Amino acid sequence: MADLKPGARLPLLFFGMLSLLGGVMAGLARLGWDVPAPALRAASVHGPLMIAAFFGTVISLERAVAAGRNWAYLAPLAAGASGIALLAGAPLFVGQMLGSLGAFGLIAASAVALRRQVAVFTTVLTLAAGCWLVGNFVWLVTGNVSAAVAWWLLFLVLTIAGERLELTRFLPTPPLAQQLFIAIVGVLIVSALAVVEQLFSLGLLALALWLLRYDIARRNIATEGLTRFIAACLLSGYAWLFAAGLLGLAGAFTPGHEWRDAALHAISLGFVFSMVFGHAPIIFPAVTRIRIPYHPALYLPLTLLHLTLALRVFGGLNNNFDLRHTSALLNGLVLLIFIATLVTLVRRNAKRGAR
Question: What's the confidence (pLDDT) of residue 170?
Fold first, then answer.
């Protein structure tokens, strides 16, 4: 079957960006900021908008491009539609079912890669898609977003870990390292099944240490240009994953814990968005065929991301609501700065090409 042309993929990416914008504003609403009415109504589904709708759309779109099958694009379409439904105030069931359809589609697209190459990393990527589906079902059955959070986090964490594992084949990695990686993934999945937060936190710590030790970023940080920037994003993200694991050991993942905001955003902002910042100059051109040239200006939003997140975590650890309130707005502004930086680089590149 023919693949979808790059121009036809842009609306799907736009749907995902709507979920991101809505999710950020819904998060601000939870901390008392004045936001437009749709985002205010969606304050209770901040997590589903960010994880299931935005990241579900982006990851599904990337996987659909890799699969090269038209049907695979139904996954990002469903995920993006779930975010629009949540923001539009449609019955919650509609958003939940659309998100679940998106997860089914991602599993199917991941299975294509698994059939092409049976390997640990393709297996982990398929398991990650399954975690998204399980999280959606848990939310659908219980109506409790908190009950699904561990599965949704595993969807993101295992997707990133699986993609990074693929690149270790270019390094002289000992066989024991891959066995250890498999064991860590097993611990994380078992901990989510058994709802053992301490074990989940230990798994995150172990994965962070594994990535810091075996990821190719350790070597690439000594290079220059885009390769070094990506390595900086990765290594700093792993540090935030480690921090989240430490907070989790102190009970921070427990619903209602005063450090929960700090732990969740150490993963979702510190770890996951560091990966987004690092991989956007590669993934966006692969999806849209629009080149993003490297420029040192990319370090600005990365630095601001870490600084504003550090303020938010500090505010959470010290029960300082005002600091959390202000830093949350700064977190959202950083994402806008990053997008504006990418747009500026693309426009500069287009002008040079037109000369």
Answer: 67
